[in-house]
Amino acid sequence: MNVAIVGAGPGGLYLAILLKRDDPAHRVTVYERNRLEDTFGFGVVFSDETLENVGEADPETNAALAAAAARWEDIEIHYRGTVTRSTGHRFSGVERTTLLQLLAARSRALGVELHPQQEIRDLGDCGLPSADLIVLADGVASAMRDRLADRFEPRIDWRRNRFVWLGTSRPFPAFTFYFKESPAGLWRTHAYQYAPGRSTFIVEAREETWQASGLDETDERATVAYLERLFAEELGGHRLLANRSIWRRFPTVRNARWHSGNVVLLGDAAHTAHFSVGSGTKLAMEDAIALAAALRRERPVPEALAAYEADRRPPVESLQRAAQASLEWFEAVERYHDTEPIQFAFNLLTRSLRITHDNLKLRDPALVARVDRWFAEGAARQSGRPVAAGPAPPPLFTPYRIRDLVLPNRIVVSSMCQYRAVDGMPNDWHLVHLGSRALGGAGLVMTEMTDVSPEGRISPGCAGMYRTEHVDGWRRIVEFVHRESGAGIGMQLSHAGRKGSTCVLWEGEDQPLPAGNWPLIAPSPIPYRPHNQVPREMTRADMDRVALEFEQAAAMAEAAGFDLLELHLAHGYLLASFISPLTNRRTDEYGGSLAGRMRYPLEIVSRVRAAWPAARPLSVRISATDWAPGGLEPADAVEVAGLAVAAGADIVDVSAGQTVPEGKPVYGRQFQTPFSDRIRHEARVPTMTVGNISSAADVNTILAAGRADLVVLARAHLWDPYWTRHAAAELGFPLPWPSEYETLNRYKPRMK
Ligand SMILES: Cc1cc2nc3c(=O)[nH]c(=O)nc-3n(C[C@H](O)[C@H](O)[C@H](O)COP(=O)(O)OP(=O)(O)OC[C@H]3O[C@@H](n4cnc5c(N)ncnc54)[C@H](O)[C@@H]3O)c2cc1C
Ligand SMILES: Cc1cc2nc3c(=O)[nH]c(=O)nc-3n(C[C@H](O)[C@H](O)[C@H](O)COP(=O)(O)O)c2cc1C
After folding, report:
1. Which of 24, 215, 532, 609 could hold 527 in an S-S bridge, CB 3.0 to 4.6 Å?
2. 119 CB less than 6 Å from ligand 1?
3. Tally of CB atoms within 10 A around 428
4. What share of residues in the chain are helix, strand, coil (percent, to 5)?
């Protein structure tokens, strides 16, 4: 096979090595526009796992790399005059020039033809036309990829922060993060040693901070002088070193396709991952491993390229998601400026979701014990319930107070429509559904969306709180939960608005009823889907009536004994459709700006607050984004949350989407938690987070990092009503059992 590789970075060179190793008869030619020894930057980081992968593919490269690498286990976080050290993170640093020299030497030894100072301008250049396979490993700014943009469809997301890649002679015994305040703003530094007396020193700041510092993009000398002054103490007399150290913005590169015919993208040309997860070189070298393996397995070439892309895309996209979370963390770090240093450090360490509470416990049990102790003491102060003697409980099993309600732990059973009521009346199904989940150990159990009027129901099977009989129906459930479990029980009150009058879920989601539809109301006469009923635009008289229905429902919920009320301002139901600009087109004072669109929902919040006992808490569930162009954005949600709390809500239950059918959610583990985190820190209000959270490790991580105060699980509770009990068994926490089940403790079965 005749292979032409454009670019002698780590990706291109490593592929050349692997192909020649596989078959010395392959002709492998690498074209590099620069001299081989010319390179930007200083050192790159590898995890032990990456070195192992590389080692398996080519033990000679691994041996040379291992000999050249500097190693460390610790991460140090310098923040507000404190240093938090975490251990157990095994990394190696290698000088980028050394890496490239090693790879170039190994390539030559295997017979790869290297053509330095040979720039490739199009597919007709040099030996490319005669090649069986053309590999574009020409880096992040790949001109070849852009020339073939119609084939690969690259998308480049230029991030807003500025960063500069510098070196220093100061040795760093740990991967070191500095967060340094200056009059211009907050500077972040990522520093690590890659050779004795040689370290990478990347400085990052917001665009505004960088501009206020008066630096410009290309003046290296001014940058070095400014940063040496700023970091004089941290550098301890050492100098900063520049090497094409210009101020950049990070481009996240994605391509719709990585291959076309016999041409394939590899490394940064195909995808980038933010430097804060230190994985660009790893990804490029792992691409090379996967491409070589695909070519070994499959022929003809286009089939091998398809196999390569199919193998590599999932892990690359997973790492890109982690890198995205990490880069967003560094972009938004000003948000955490007043968190306690221990929480700040834990938050940083767990920012990309790859390290969790339990995972960090394996690496650094002492640090996690400190975090748990700090968290439990805070919870004891907040709730007024002292921490029990002995080791601190995991964050999940700490109490939480909202007004006079003290929840025994941080797990909430999310509201889930059951569609089993008749004229709004709850029955045995609801008793068992909610009762079993309360026995399952959750701290708070929420009723499904419970409607304030028959017309406010989604379907004929929806639960209600509008007839006097409903009070007794619900009281039976509330009393069971209070009598038989330690859980609190809350009611979610709602009006379906334009999403009403449809079949129960399993008979046709969002489908109008075959008969017996009722008229709908909404802020604007826009049907949910084209085939749904057009709602009538609400008049002020309609608003008065619905507000009264909410007040009456609140009074009935009080009579039934509920501990907490939640107002449903999410998912496109009546109140949510006032908030979203996509569903509210009113020209009166209840439309227009966010303040106008919030006017009616806030009126409901304050009227319900007034009708609901002062000792009992009120929550609001909001959609933090519509996931749709022109819709509500997370920045608006910060305002929505702040306004709702100012109007009387105690906590914000942060969900997202379901406002318009064309919304395109970006799903993933904990996909809505970043909204909760942002609202909690920017609006400075207590939050609950919900959405694809299923493990105790994730719950503990979210809580200890301060991304939410309570964690809400829906589907995980359908699957396992005893989710909290299982979490207790997994974490070794002694959650008391109902007396009837005490025999479990006597016979001590193995719970894991
Ligand atoms: C500030 C910063 C910090 C980083 N930190 C790390 C880190 O800690 N760990 C890590 O793993 N990665 C890090 N990276 C990323 C890492 O440098 C890249 O991800 C990695 O080099 C990608 O390898 P590659 O082979 O795909 O491309 P590159 O290394 O960019 O190589 C592409 C090569 O192609 C050549 N070329 C381009 N166009 C042509 C052409 N038309 N003809 C011929 N030759 C051409 C270029 O000259 C270059 O030599 C960092 C990057 C930056 C900017
Ligand atoms: C069967 C079912 C019914 C639901 N009904 C409601 C509801 O009544 N009110 C509400 O706010 N959310 C409702 N949701 C959304 C959930 O409360 C939750 O926000 C969503 O499922 C994401 O959480 P999860 O990933 O833990 O399931 C429902 C979800 C499910 C699966």
Report:
1. 532
2. yes
3. 11
4. 40, 20, 35
- pLDDT (0 to 100) of residue 127: 85
In the set 400, 528, 573, 590, the catalytic residue is 573
**Residue of 491, 420, 432, 407 whose CA lies nearest to 710:** 407
- Ligand 2 geometric centre to CA of 654 (Å): 12
* pLDDT less than 50: residues of the chain: 752
User: Strand, coil or helix: what is 197?
Assistant: coil
Contacts of 632 (CB under 8 A, 6+ apart): 579, 580, 581, 582, 623, 624, 625, 626, 640, 659
CB-facing half-sphere around the CA of 381: CA atoms within 13 A: 5
Please choose from 33, 121, 327 the residue to mutate so as to test ligand 1's pocket, defined by most ligand atoms within 8 A of CB. 33
573 is catalytic: yes
CA max distance for the chain: 87
CA 440 vs CA 436, 638, 731: distances in Å: 6, 33, 16
Please enumerate in sequence order all residues whose Cβ is within 8 A of that of 563, keeping only pairs 6 or more positions apart, or say none. 405, 444, 488, 489, 490, 616, 617
Cα 118 to Cα 121: distance, rounded to the nearest angstrom: 10
Q: Is the CB of 621 under 6 A from ligand 2?
A: yes
d(CA 86, CA 364): 6
Residue nearest to atom 4 of ligand 1 (CA): 275
How far is residue 296 CA from its own chain's centroid? 37
Of 692, 335, 363, nearest in space to 371 by CA: 363
What is the pTM (predicted TM-score) of this model?
A: 0.92
One-letter amino acid at 308 equals Y
What is the number of the ligand 2 atom nearest to the C-alpha of 621? 11
Cα–Cα separations (whole angstroms), residue 535 to 178, 523, 588, 732: 55, 9, 18, 53
Question: Can you tell me the distance from the alpha carbon of 193 to that of 115, in angstroms, rounded to the nearest whole number?
Answer: 32
Q: Angle at Cα 710 formed by Cα 708 and Cα 715, nearest 5°? A: 110
- Distance in angstroms (rounded) separating the CA atoms of residues 544 and 551: 11
What atom of ligand 2 comes closest to residue 690's alpha carbon? 23
CB atoms inside a 10 Å sphere around CB 749: 9
Distance of CA 368 to the CA centre of its chain: 21
Cβ neighbours, 10 Å, residue 548: 14
Confidence at residue 173, expressed as pLDDT on a 0 to 100 scale: 87
Angle made by CA atoms 54, 251, 348, in degrees to the nearest 5? 70
Distance CA 658, CA 623 (A): 8
- Scanning 254-353, the segments in alpha helix (DSSP H) are 280-297, 301-331, 341-349
Look up tokens 């310098």; give the residue.
78
Test site for ligand 2: of 411, 413, 414, most ligand atoms within 8 A of the Cβ: 414
Q: Give the pLDDT score at 689.
A: 98
